[in-house]
Design goal:
single chain; alpha+beta; rod-shaped
Length: 274
């Protein structure tokens, strides 16, 4: 009987140990399954995160491409359309100050249509003021800075116009020509100091003086020399007669300053577009 009790105790102990081993195995299996599920969930979340990053990258790239295309279209429109729109303006939207000045002087020329002293004095003051205004705002320190290269006002009916209407040449009759100055060795022989440089260009201008010659005197390219002319029919009143004749204002301008500004503006525009 004692032996049987001992055997039963051993059998119950073995059963208890087997139950403990089985429960521990179950716990280990559950924990391993839990670890596997957590790992799979982490991988799943990482894959979703990677997908979000890929989608965000694709969207950012697409937006960058679209914005770049829009910018190219805008730049192309600026470069191609603005010159066309500018050309539709009056005189191509170019600087019309010189044209307006010539038209204003022609109106004065038609108004002062007599050869009496009062009309001639008015015309002379108007023309000289016009010349000062045309060259106004510029420091004439060299031939290149002279804006008005020549001026002719017809019909010649007053002393200040001379016999052929070349006002600028007549204003320099007290100044020797450049070659005469060099021969005399005197570079400041003009009575009017303001005319010393301008008269190097104005002196001796006549109908035979070409724009190329004026450009050479002013030390500029012929391409920046702009001739302008306005003429029209008018009534000229003299002491004993009145007759219809042609009234004319012919001026030649040095547009080098405007050409420099235009070239600089175009250069800056190209830099901005880049």
């Amino acid at each position: 009987i004692p032996h049987s009790r001992h055997v039963r105790k051993q059998i119950s102990a073995q059963g208890t140990s087997e139950k403990g081993n089985n429960s521990s195995r179950e716990k280990e299996g559950n924990s391993s399954k839990l670890k596997v599920s957590k790992a799979e969930e982490a991988k799943k979340k990482a894959a979703e995160h990677d997908m979000y990053l890929v989608n965000a990258t694709n969207i950012g790239t697409a937006l960058m491409v679209i914005n770049s295309q829009r910018a190219l279209v805008i730049f192309a429109a600026i470069v191609s359309l603005l010159p066309i729109l500018a050309g539709l303006g009056v005189n191509g939207n170019t600087n019309i100050v010189s044209t307006t000045m010539v038209e204003q002087l022609q109106a004065t020329n038609l108004f002062a249509n007599s050869d009496n002293s009062t009309s001639c004095e008015f015309l002379q003051q108007s023309v000289h003021t016009w010349i000062e205004a045309t060259n106004g705002g510029r420091k004439v320190d060299s031939e290149e800075s002279v804006h008005l290269l020549s001026l002719r006002v017809l019909p010649a009916r007053c002393d200040f116009q001379g016999f052929d209407g070349w006002v600028t040449s007549q204003m320099c009759h007290d100044c020797p020509k450049e070659e005469e100055e060099e021969m005399q060795g005197n570079t400041n022989s003009c009575k009017d100091e303001k005319l010393r440089i301008t008269c190097k260009i104005w002196n001796g201008t006549d109908s035979d003086t070409t724009n190329v010659e004026l450009a050479r005197r002013a030390h500029v390219r012929p391409g920046v020399v702009e001739p302008l002319e306005r003429q029209g029919e008018g009534v000229l009143s003299k002491k004993n007669s009145t007759n219809e004749t042609q009234f004319l204002v012919s001026a030649v301008f040095n547009q080098q300053h405007a050409a420099k500004l235009a070239a600089m503006s175009t250069f800056i525009l190209q830099i901005v577009l880049l």
